[in-house]
Write a structure and sequence with these properties.
By secondary structure, the protein is mostly helical. The chain folds into two domains: 76 residues, no CATH class; 85 residues, Orthogonal Bundle (N-utilizing Substance Protein B Homolog, Chain A). It contains seven helices and no strands.
């Protein structure tokens, strides 16, 4: 019985690490977005500040690597992601969205378009993070915007490799 639990934990560990990476990416992107700091510098500071703290999730290699992959991909494709989000929710210009909602959406759409996570996982994770970090209306808005994004991606077969 113990072996099953250990194996189950081992399989689930990357799931937790990826959620923590999404949250780290959200924190870095939020600061870069609101304070106009360079995302790479913000990330380096976050990683430097966590050194020596064994309880900090950013010390996990899987978390750190996935966060770096998310942040660098989002920064590199920022204009394209924002344009796509603007098409998915035309009544809500990306520049007018709350910085939390905007960056949650960026992370989820990037994950879907880059095939880093299954669509259902990306949407579910985004909604859960919106519940934790967003306003009372964030989860519903994020879910609706991502629903439109999924429909647009499916219709256009636009998933990136």
């Amino acid at each position: 019985m113990w072996g099953w639990r250990y194996e189950h934990w081992r399989e689930r560990a990357p799931v937790k690490a990826k959620r923590e990476a999404r949250i780290l990416a959200l924190q870095v992107l939020y600061e870069a977005d609101t304070a106009q700091h360079q995302a790479g510098e913000v990330l380096q500071r976050h990683l430097r500040d966590c050194t020596g703290d064994p309880d900090n999730p950013a010390n996990n290699v899987t978390t750190r690597d996935y966060a770096i992959r998310l942040i660098s991909g989002i920064v590199k494709n920022l204009a394209e992601l924002d344009n796509f989000l603007g098409q998915c929710a035309p009544d809500f210009p990306v520049s007018n969205l709350s910085p939390i909602d905007r960056n949650i959406l960026r992370v989820a759409v990037y994950e879907m378009r880059a095939n880093l996570a299954p669509v259902r996982v990306a949407v579910n994770e985004a909604v859960e993070i919106a519940k934790q970090y967003g306003s009372d209306t964030s989860p519903r808005f994020v879910n609706g915007a991502l629903g439109a994004a999924v429909a647009r991606l499916s219709a256009a077969h636009e998933l990136m490799a």
